[in-house]
């Protein structure tokens, strides 16, 4: 079962997304701020990270830069999840090291396709 780490400071978003992903066969880890997310990724080495970019303590841009700079975590795909939908935001996420980008509010079918793509699975787990 693939393990996904959701790094999201909004409890409602975290809860909703985690329940929907668990129903689809993913193991879900959660972190409420960037420091927790960084620690969880280093300790648990999830298969993929869903990263809110506007986080307390350490923002998602910096967490991603740190994950991508470390040998143990650099190959973990990171999908940026953000309400920032301006044209430059996608490039900013890529520049920080994100492998993909999705906007909030989350459209689950689109996000599930991206997760399956980065995990190398057609159709999900």
TrEMBL record:
SMART domains in the cross-refs: REC
Chain positions with 4-aspartylphosphate modification: 52
Cited Pfam families: Response_reg
Species of the source: Ramlibacter tataouinensis
PANTHER family: HYBRID SIGNAL TRANSDUCTION HISTIDINE KINASE J (PTHR45339)
Keywords from the named record: Phosphoprotein, Two-component regulatory system
Biological processes annotated in GO: phosphorelay signal transduction system
Superkingdom in the source lineage: Bacteria
Domain Response regulatory: 3-119
Name recorded for this polypeptide: Chemotaxis protein CheY
Keyword Lipid biosynthesis attached: no
Statement: the UniProt record of this protein carries the keyword Phosphoprotein: yes
PROSITE patterns: RESPONSE_REGULATORY (PS50110)
